[in-house]
Amino acid sequence: MNKRKMRLVVKVGSSSLAALGGGCDPGKMSLLVSAVNQLRQAGHQVVLVSSGAVASGFKGLGYQQRPRTLAAKQAAAAIGQSLLMQTYTQLFGAHGITIAQILLTRSDFSHRGRYQHAFQTLSLLLEKTVLPIINENDTVSVEELTFGDNDMLGALVAGLVHADLYLILTDTDGLYDKDPRTHKDAVRIPYLSSITEDVEELAGGASELGTGGMRSKLIAAKTAQQLGVPSFIGHLGEPGDLLAVLAGQGKGTYVDYKAEKQKRSLPTLPTRKQWIAVHSPVRGRITVDGGAAEAILKNRGSLLVAGVVDVDGSFLQGEVIDVFYDGSLIGRGVSRYDASELQLLLSPHQDGKPSGTVIHRDQWTEASFLA
Length: 371
Ligand SMILES: Nc1ncnc2c1ncn2[C@@H]1O[C@H](COP(=O)(O)OP(=O)(O)O)[C@@H](O)[C@H]1O
Ligand SMILES: N[C@@H](CCC(=O)OP(=O)(O)O)C(=O)O
Fold this sequence. Notes:
With about 375 residues, this protein is of the alpha/beta class. It is elongated, with a radius of gyration of 23 Å. It has two domains: about 5-255, Acetylglutamate kinase-like (Carbamate kinase); about 280-370, PUA domain (Archaeosine Trna-guanine Transglycosylase, Chain: A, domain 4). The strands form three sheets. It has an eight-stranded mixed β-sheet with strand order 3-4-2-1-5-7-8-6, sandwiched between helices. The protein has a five-stranded mixed β-sheet with strand order 11-9-12-13-15, with helices on both faces. Strands 10-14 form a two-stranded antiparallel ribbon. The two termini are about 35 Å apart. Helix content is about 35%, strand content about 20%. Bound molecules: adenosine-5'-diphosphate (ADP) and ligand VHF. Ligand VHF binds next to α2 and β4. The ligand N[C@@H](CCC(=O)OP(=O)(O)O)C(=O)O binds near residues 55, 77, 138 and 212. It comes from Brevibacillus ruminantium. It holds the Pfam family AA_kinase. It is found in: Cytoplasm.
């Protein structure tokens, strides 16, 4: 049995929280609450990423089924989110657990200041043993509702809090070689070392209540892995199932997680580097020569102005730029110069070799980590 105290992000989909005809399903939610309580009792820290706002709220708008228009989904989410939190408050309260609601959008991750605030808030809540419950801020997020991004939101949160494991709970016990709803002979895939394009091809569409289907879970697991977090995709049938997952006995699909090793193959990327790798808006690009590429890739140095051979875009000091060598992207980092300043330094009229650092090593992330 795995004894290590872990930090876990648990993402639960609409199908695992709402009744088929809409509204919260207290039975399904009680099961989740008991399972999370068991994890906490065993000493693990948990962040819950919960969908279900639209599915819980559409009945309140007078709809018989999940609405299709964006405005109706957003209005349904506004109703359902408060119902969800009311139910969670009661159910977790019965176990003496204080909960906190956090609503995020994708753009909160690309804004460095907001990203840092989210990190600080989550860190303090966890330190105080509060259970953070995160959902998209549906009223203002368009893409999330269209692309089923809560799976991705959970992956980004898992990276942000440096989770040891990302658990994606759904109505199906893992990835099958074809959609098990439509193929009786589908076979479950218990372990994947990585998510390749062939693996993505296996996944089909969403359930009646859900959004992204298995495909969005695989893409999310791939991003989590990039950030250094292994994943599990499966179904919650009994309260003890989540503890079984940690011990490597979960019924589902593990991605890059070996319980007996009790560790991931990659360390999580530092928060600052995650922001550069996955969330930052890229404002321009520079091309460097062989010496500069070797300095930053092999010798763990910084990137100096002297190695820059070309500048593209109109980025400002402090903005993120891509770095190319020999036609290939080698990494991304925060520029210490405006593009116009760099252009000037590289001009042939410049006396002597320019000096100075364009990208400091601490503000740099290699291409293998980029989304
Ligand atoms: N290859 C596959 N393996 C497993 N499930 C699949 C596969 N292809 C499609 N699915 C479907 O994905 C659905 C889960 O996705 P979704 O409805 O978005 O869930 P949630 O609401 O839990 O996020 C399942 O109901 C399942 O039928
Ligand atoms: N924010 C939306 C999430 C939509 C979504 O991603 O749903 P799911 O596929 O069930 O995880 C909601 O709460 O309904």
